[in-house]
Fold this sequence. Notes:
The protein is an alpha+beta fold. The protein has helices at about 1-40, 95, 185-190, 210; strands at about 55-60, 60, 70-75, 85, 105-115, 120-130, 140-145, 150, 170, 175-180, 190-200, 215-225.
Amino acid sequence: MEKNIKGKKNRVIYWLTIIVIIIIYIVIHLLMEGFKEKYYIDNIPIQPVNHIRGTEKKEPENDNTDNKNIIFKYTEDSRRGNHIYMINQFPMSDEVGKSLVGEFKTFDFKLEFTEKAVGVKYTITAEKLSNSDLPDDWVKAYLSNGTAGINNCFRPNGRIKTYNEYPVYKGKERILYEGTVTSAEVKKGYKDFTFRMWVSEDVKVVNEEYLMRTFNARINVHANGNI
């Protein structure tokens, strides 16, 4: 009798031990899966990545004279200057792209004018840099002044142009905007702009190779008038 009781007790202990081991295994497995998932997510590059920091003033390149009455002013990343770049971005609609705001999502700059700048013609361009490997027709490029988009950025159907659709400036840059300084702008003293880029929603290819591609563009300002 006592032997049977002892045997039953041993079997209960045995099965309890097995159950505890299984529970411990399941808990450890779940914790490891959670860790792996968190590790994977935390190591995906931030998107979009548009690093622009510091403060810098730069006179526009002038094709006719050394007199400078327009100043190109922007916040500058000490490593990248007047650049904006994308990495690991997914396609997005124009509505979302045009609304991108905040640090690392836009390139904000202004043109400051002297009293002699009235009538000066200038061109704002985007220059694709050599380390870019996203196709030009994948990248939407959008320049706005205040809350309004520049007319040149829109297709006839109202959608935003891709980089390759903009007119070419001197063989390597793309014209985002051509303007002439007005007396009202001189009185105000400056004109603000914001540049944004995103991957077109028309792009359907999403794979590991695609995610590692980048697009790096530099904003340039050229003064073309007699100043």
